Amino acid sequence: MTRDVNRRDFIKFMGIAGGLLLTSGYMLAHSRGDVRGIFDSIELSNGVNMPIFGFGTFKTSLGVSKYDEQKIVKAVDAGYRHIGVFDSTHLVGATVVSGKVLRNDVFISLFLDFKKREDDITAMFDEKLAELKIDYVDMVVLNISNFNDIEKDHILEAWEKIEKIYKNKKAMAVGISNLDSNNFDNFIYECNVKPMINYLAINPYNYDDSFVKRCYRHGMSIVVRDGFYGRPNVLNNEVILKIADKLEKTPRQILSRWNLQNGFALLRDLSDIQSFDDDSGLFDFALERREMRAISRLT
User: Fold this and answer.
1) How far apart are CA 191 and CA 264, in angstroms?
2) For 60, which DSSP code?
3) Rounded to an integer, what distance in angstroms lies between the CA atom of residue 166 and that of residue 65?
4) Strands (E), 102-187
């Protein structure tokens, strides 16, 4: 049974007041520090702090928005301070203009879809920024579904426009999505400003630890969608279920904890969240080293 969790209860669950520390002995191998609660952040390579928890304004498979102002306000009040804007730009802007969401309380990432050379990134950014009704975004992300579908030179041209937005201080940080190992060198060594984050569809079935470490070596933090994106059946995996049963946690909590201990920030799909209780129970336990390894090796 689920129940509504108000902001005060949620903060209490998260251990913010008590400064809850994890003492299992498992070091957070890739994170920027101990994760103590939903309001924690990751320091990006340029010194900007990005919240570890947020939600994305994703569309449905039919291209319909899943959100309204009430859902956005409720999520922010519950502690999800990173808003990944993929769609519903005007709704996010309306919550800020109305004062229902305070601009200084949220980290807004604007994802710009780039599919072909003709896509004007500068014009797209200006249009979306106007819809958001704000002067700047905390991060702008060049959103590419598949690097192999676009010519390298065209991607670099688009990235130059992202760099210009950053240099003009219209974005406090910059990121890329779906930069994979095959295209990494061809992109990263041509950049004047390296991405501060790589937004990836990571789950235990496609986890590549060497590539994640490679991103970290180049100063890129990892942001993932939900933590089991594309493979919801991972929640029913025998290894996950066994660990969940042992720790008296849900499979979602186990996978979210795995992501956090790998140092990843999470963007939730609010329509998939069973209840805020799931995330409120992430900070009173830690996975052991062998459990982390077992999850990372799922096939």
Assistant:
1) 23
2) P
3) 28
4) 107-113, 139-143, 174-177
Rounding to the nearest 10 degrees, give the CA dihedral for residues 225, 288, 299, 245: -90
Q: What backbone torsions phi and psi does residue 173 show, to the nearest 5 degrees?
A: -155, 165
251 with 233: CB under 8 angstroms?
no
- Give, rounded to a whole angstrom, the gap between the first and last alpha carbons of the chain: 32
Tokens (6 digits) for 248 = 């008296």
**Spacing of C-alpha 230 from chain mean position:** 15
Give dist(CA 164, CA 147) in Å, integer.
Answer: 21
214 Cβ contact partners less than 8 Å away, ≥ 6 residues apart: 181, 184
Question: Which one-letter amino acid corresponds to residue 30?
Answer: H
Asked if 173 contacts 44 with a C-beta cutoff of 8 angstroms, the reply is: yes
- By CB atoms closer than 10 A (0-12, 13-18, 19+), residue 285 is middle
Q: Give the CA angle between residues 172, 173, 177 to the nearest 5°.
A: 145
What's the predicted TM-score (pTM) here?
0.85
Nearest-5° angle of CA 37, CA 197, CA 13?
10
pLDDT of residue 32 exceeding 80: no
Which DSSP state fits 196? Answer: S
Q: ∠ at Cα 78 (98, 222), nearest 5°?
A: 100
38-61, pLDDT tens digit by residue?
Answer: 888 999 999 999 999 998 887 655
- Number of helical H runs and strand E runs in the chain: 11, 10
Which residue type is seen at 37?
Answer: G
β 49-51/41-43 pair status: antiparallel
* Residue 78 C-alpha from the chain's centroid: 17
Looking only at the bridges linking them, the beta strands covering 107-113 and 197-200 are: unpaired
pLDDT, mean of residues 132-137: 96
The span from the CA of 56 to the CA of 225, in Å, is: 8
